[in-house]
Amino acid sequence: AFPCPRRTVGKGLPKRLTMTDRRTPRDPDSGPPRGRGHRRLDPRLLPVAILGLAMLARLPSLGDGLWYDEIAAWTDYASRGPAHVLTTYDDPANHVLQSLLSWASFEASGSLLGGELAMRLPSLLISLAAVALVAWLAGQGLRGRPEDAGAVRIAALLAAGCPVLALSGTEARGYAFMIAGAAGATAAWIAWMRRAAEPPDRRGPAAVPLAAYAAAMLLGAWAHPVTAVVAAGHALASIALAMAAAARRGAGGPGVVSATHAALSGLLPVAIAGVLTLAACAGVVGPTPEVCDGLD
Q1: What share of the chain is helix, strand, coil (3-state, %, to 5)?
Q2: What is the pTM of this model?
Q3: pLDDT-based confidence at residue 250 (cuts at 50, 70, 90)
Q4: What is the DSSP string of 77-126?
Q5: CB within 8 A of 14, min separation 6: which ones?
Q6: Cα–Cα distance between 229 and 225 in angstroms, integer?
Q7: What is the pLDDT of residues 64-108, one digit of tens each?
Q8: Which of 126, 128, 117, 123 is nearest to 48 (CA)?
Q9: Cα 94 from Cα 114, distance rounded (Å)
Q10: Whole-angstrom distance, CA of residue 230 vs CA of residue 218
Q11: Three-state SS for 168?
């Protein structure tokens, strides 16, 4: 009998048959393997896609004829220039900031875009910005945790297709400014309240949420005074939180003073926004010409 020679596995075979597979094992939860033609959407492109959807929802109505309130606001206020817009408030048709921006847009691009689109362009842009502000509000409400990113994207998607927000972006009125201002101010107010609840050594800069709140409220209230109701709601919520903190801890209980002060600090951005808004609207908050005539 001849001894059987010892076999060496792989000896003499082509190199491609003896190399071990050094690729990282695929995660079994990642689903079936994708071919070369399937690529995952880059998350950085998702905001662009959502804004594109928002634009598509607004395009069909941008070229429609002007309706009564748009005509009244343009003929009685915006068409007469900034001085008239900023100092005259004979009736609520003058949404001051929106009328001012419509005049500027018409003067700059009316011959290129046409009257209707040029007058509505500021509302369109603010309406698109409101989608991002709603997403910011959702992020603040969910504490901005990474695992909540999907919910924030859903909020932005819903805002992009929301009929009320879409309609407000297609008319030369101040309603898109109201929505954007309310969403931005509420998000900034939540950020400010969270900062106030943090220990002093962990608090971020105070100027950021304060400036964001003031700018958002000015954007909304200067375009439509009813936006001030949102600030009133923030003030009432701050007082309610302060009362709840005192009730939970009991009179004189540990931490009651700091908790109450943290809650009452929500009144500070409301006060700052109120002063700035009154200053911006100083030319139109006085008595109307009819009232002045009646006093003569």
Answers
A1: 70, 0, 30
A2: 0.77
A3: low
A4: TGGG-HHHHHH--SSTT--HHHHHHHHHHHHHHHHHH-HHHHHHHHHHHH
A5: none
A6: 8
A7: 888 899 999 999 999 999 999 988 888 888 899 999 999 999 999
A8: 128
A9: 22
A10: 12
A11: helix
